[in-house]
């Protein structure tokens, strides 16, 4: 049984190096803020494990996500925004493979348009948006979900970018949060899916122009999500040719030649 | 309101031209058998519309799926098996786009490993398999689903390839059929999903070595699925910057400069 | 195949007879307003059928829902508020039985606390509420759902009672609408479920103190919901003792005596 | 945070006292066998807690399920078969209330027809059945689900009663097991739901005429299910009148008199 959870917080890490306003909020990058918060936020649910948190960024070799590093990663947290297209498809393939084997994936805010999130969802992942420093109130729709542990009925962020419905996603397995926005929209802000053997959580807040990842409720949600998404198994994909478990009646009209050919054909 | 449904039955069309046993069952290709059956099978549910059925195959230009042809297609039926990798990614992108806009997609049998099905699901779509001419009994788990119209409690196929669980798919919105196999396995054989504005149905039977698509129950299921998957809307993807519907309180600490930059950044 | 849909609009019909303000809005009862609107609102989706709309109220014999009348009802629309407890349990049993056989059920507004809705859900169906004449904006989260046909991205009601999350319901099969309220809450306002062979739709708006059922968007939603919930089958419940379809190996250690006793025992 | 899980195994306890064959398999009642197995089976997942297991039976005062005892119960395991109708409705109400507050509920085999299961589901919970000492093979459809921990791809029971589809239940949140039966049927044998704040698991095997609850795989499943269903919260139902969180525009045409009356009306 696992005794620790290995986490990588991945960040595009461009805004913080190019925009003074963003740099003032996240001087070492928002990945560093999130990683430090995770390290400092113990789990609240039974079975919560201690975390080993590292980071990775776009401009590192292989975006910091080598085969070996991903092989040892339990939960990957993803933030990207303006250069999703620069993420190498081979790395996206690699992350998808690991999620399907059991690795957790937490996608934050503008990561809704990342290659990996769109890959896992199969949809466009579009939405409405507006950057107007407006109030967001996140309502807890599933208070017994582990990701809602330690929260009240709602929490507020005084200034956030607005994301509004329709959010083009497959229906979530659970919708933990629904947001109310000052400007009049609503949004499914905390959404859970299972894909393969892995768990995926999308969490809406986190525009780079606001100190959202310094907020203690936001930190609590991400910490809970990491615990929730930690792998329960690690199962490598196969598509086996299976021997029968019961006798199959002999069918004289068929020959085994066809079978052998067909086995070879299967991808 | 639509008055007809335009259908394309797509086939890899290799086995039938390379294997005499398969050619004997489907001399003009299984796409032709399916298309003729669809044309001859009226819908049973209220709202059923007449069909205009065409076909397309891998070796045609653009696999027979040009932009223009797909733009006018309501439901695409897909059969592929041994050369999934030869399907052009640009055509896969195009089909995905149309499904997300509202086009229906029916994936048959070995199409579980097609690029388009894996793209829509986000998973490996693996399973167990065995070719042993064995009996399959498909149980109707959701008798009130439109795809089950006209069927009894179950129907049987005397000889089929076995597909067994675990089938690596996202949990279906509805599981219409579960199969019992002579050799001891079970399988979720009729699965429905919604992705974007389109409906997707996976239907298990249809190994090329058996006359499955000549079976009247199988034909009934595919005809029902086409009616069920016909588009209800046609909505092209956008990710709009939305004006507020309610007044937003003035926040003196923020400037609009940041907003303009960020809009430009969004993918 | 059915050619018409038989609808009963059921109303508690107390507020309208006891409160002048409500009577001014719905002089013949809100059931009459809804029934007239349904009769005048043709369906927009393929397969839409003409409606035969009647009404029933609490103070009629058997609440207007005799065995015979329900047996011929395709879709039942339900509005109740202050005397849910006066609904006879035998009538609730009868309605549940019909829904499970295939009859549609549309539950409106304060019907969230009706015996029949709680029976079908298995939960408390609690929520937050406030009557403050506030603006409600209903966002269309699933624009391709038949219940959203003919609507824009959202519609507004200038004055409504607020219902807020957490709404204690089983996760809906589809969530068509999410409401934004002026006072700061959100709510899953249009929820679909399947139970047995019947379809259930809960639609939030409709406090008796406001002219909500005179609103054309609200009328459109209820009309769409009636078409969506119309039965596709009528299957009476059984729990049959089934003969085997395959040979079962003889087990010398067991006798049939036990079997016979057990069959008689089963409820 | 909880450190132990309090479990009650409830049994109708009639067959074992009336039928020598059943008594030979379960001399102290099948509740005792299950309780002893639970006590002896440590959890496999992170967060597994030690169990305190007691039992209760139909013929005890209040069926052994007093208000106080249920208030301290974390997970209730339920087995009943031939006298479901003798369970007091007041006790059913009490159990439902506790599940909605967060208590776990594990329903075994013929408990599919128990009052409490039908109450939680809202459906008939009917199925096909046959008692013919036949082989059942349970396939693990969701190998990463906590309830499947420690199992292989499938497990078998040499002699069981057959339950076949269609099983009249709301679509499960997760379907962990699907059974293959020797006589030709299939069944969704391990089904999960959330209702209110509680988790419910239905597990098919366990006919009283066979030693099913002595089987180590069956014991493993029940032990896993108890850990999975242990409460994460304990939230008592309310339906609060909520004060607005945002200013609401003054509407001169409305008065507060109506509001006060309506508050009193709400159930």
Task: Give a nutshell description of this structure.
Four copies of one chain form a homotetramer. Chain A contains eight helices and nine strands. The first copy, chain A, has helices at 15-18, 20-25, 30-40, 67-71, 89-101, 115-121, 216-229, 256-265, and strands spanning 5-11, 51-57, 75-79, 104-108, 128-140, 154-164, 174-181, 186-195, 198-203.
Considering the chains and any ligands shown, give keywords for the structure.
homotetramer; 267 residues; alpha/beta; Rossmann fold; nine-stranded mixed sheet; 8 helices; 9 strands; 26% helix; globular; Trehalose utilization protein (chains A, B, C, D); Trehalose_catabolism_ThuA_prok (chains A, B, C, D)
What would you give as the CATH superfamily of chain A? Class I glutamine amidotransferase (GATase) domain
Radius of gyration of chain A, in angstroms, nearest whole number:
21 Å
Shape assignment of chain A? globular
Number of domains of chain A: 1
Can you tell me the residue ranges of chain A where pLDDT is under 50 for at least 5 consecutive residues? 256-267
- Describe the biggest sheet of chain A? 9 strands, mixed
How many H/I helices of chain A? Answer: 8
Q: How would you portray this structure in words?
A:
The structure is a homotetramer of 267-residue chains. By secondary structure, chain A is an alpha/beta fold. Chain A has a single domain, classed as Class I glutamine amidotransferase (GATase) domain (Rossmann fold), CATH 3.40.50. Helix content of chain A is 26%, strand content 27%. Chain A is built from 8 helices and 9 strands. A 9-stranded mixed β-sheet of chain A has the order 2-1-3-4-9-8-7-5-6. In chain A, a hairpin with a 4-residue loop joins strand 7 (174-181) and strand 8 (186-195). In chain A, helix 5 (89-101) packs across helix 6. The longest helix of chain A has 14 residues, at 216-229. Chain A is globular, with a radius of gyration of 21 Å. Chains A and B meet through helix 6, strand 5, strand 6, strand 8 and helix 8 of A and helix 6, strand 5, strand 6, strand 8 and helix 8 of B. Chains A, B, C, D: This is Trehalose utilization protein. Chains A, B, C, D: InterPro entries: Class_I_gatase-like (IPR029062), ThuA-like (IPR029010), Trehalose_catabolism_ThuA_prok (IPR009381). Chains A, B, C, D: Residues 7-229 form the ThuA-like domain. Chains A, B, C, D: It comes from Rhodoferax ferrireducens.
